[in-house]
Design goal:
40% of the residues lie in helices and 12% in strands. The chain is α+β, with helices and mostly antiparallel strands. It has a single domain, classed as Class II aldolase/adducin N-terminal domain (L-fuculose-1-phosphate Aldolase). The protein has a seven-stranded mixed sheet, with helices on both faces. The model has no long low-confidence stretch (mean pLDDT 93).
Length: 262
């Protein structure tokens, strides 16, 4: 049967199809957890291989409609390089192409406008290390001042300069940006970041005096969280965050709606 899935899958490598499946899963999970903004915001993944190509959502689709074959492959200039009937959103291209071009270590980028993320983005204090979830990102959060809608190609240089080597960036008066080595890691980072931001908004709204752990506790928590180096405190020899949750997330999606794999 000549389905869209079969057509795309026959043209791409097995590694790219896996990347497409993981990215489609991440979009479905974002919809499941309420991280969407109608058809806006984006998640991208670098396409395995020598070319500087990445996959982005087809503009106009809700996140729970996205499938592996509907994702659009573009280069760093925003040119669609794989036949597709779908356009991309320029703001998504500007933000994601900036990170993928400057950070070869980043495989997946999640940009979101969640309620908690937008709230924290307006706070001068930024993300506070007042919960265990927030401390996972100790010394890993960058900030980028608002420049309005991200349609200016020139903003890419300023965005990358502010991001530096960090994995999380709060876009002031806008939202958040998460950079992971893999889709699985980026998803887990986003989940924990969102939890931290929700808790911060709730804590500040309580009007109570807040406690803040010591910088040593924050550093230790971050070291044992999203770490690329060995973490001997775990029986696996490394932190489970960013990889061990992913198979469970895929099982969840397969129970809810496995059509992301098409």
């Amino acid at each position: 049967m000549n389905t869209p899935e079969a057509s795309v899958r026959s043209r791409v490598s097995a590694a790219e199809w896996q990347a497409r499946t993981d990215l489609a899963a991440c979009y479905r999970l974002a919809a499941h957890y309420g991280w969407t903004d109608l058809i806006y915001t984006h998640i991208s993944v670098r396409v395995p291989g020598p070319d500087d190509h990445f996959l982005l959502n087809p503009f106009g689709f809700l996140f729970d409609e996205i499938t592996a074959s509907s994702l659009v492959k573009v280069d760093l200039d925003g040119t669609i390089v794989e036949p597709s009937p779908h356009p991309i959103h320029k703001a998504g291209f500007v933000i994601h192409s900036a990170v993928h071009a400057a950070r070869p270590d980043v495989g997946c980028v999640i940009h979101s406008h969640t309620r908690a993320g937008m709230a924290v983005s307006t706070m001068e204090c930024g993300l506070l290390p007042i919960t265990q979830h927030a401390m996972l990102f100790h010394d890993r959060v960058a900030y980028h001042g608002s420049e309005g809608l991200a349609l200016d190609i020139d903003e890419r240089a300023r965005l990358v300069d502010d991001l530096g080597k960090h994995t999380i960036m709060i876009l002031r008066n806008h939202g958040t940006l998460v950079c992971g080595h893999t889709v699985a890691e980026a998803f887990s980072m986003m989940w924990h970041l969102e939890k931290a931001m929700q808790a911060q908004v709730d804590a500040l709204a309580s009007g109570q005096t807040l406690t803040t752990p010591s910088p040593d506790v924050a550093r230790s928590t971050a070291r044992m969280g999203f770490a690329s180096e060995p973490v001997l405190e775990y029986t696996e020899g490394r932190s489970p965050m960013g990889w061990l949750e992913w198979p469970a997330m895929l099982r969840l999606l397969d129970r809810l709606d496995p059509s992301f794999r098409l």
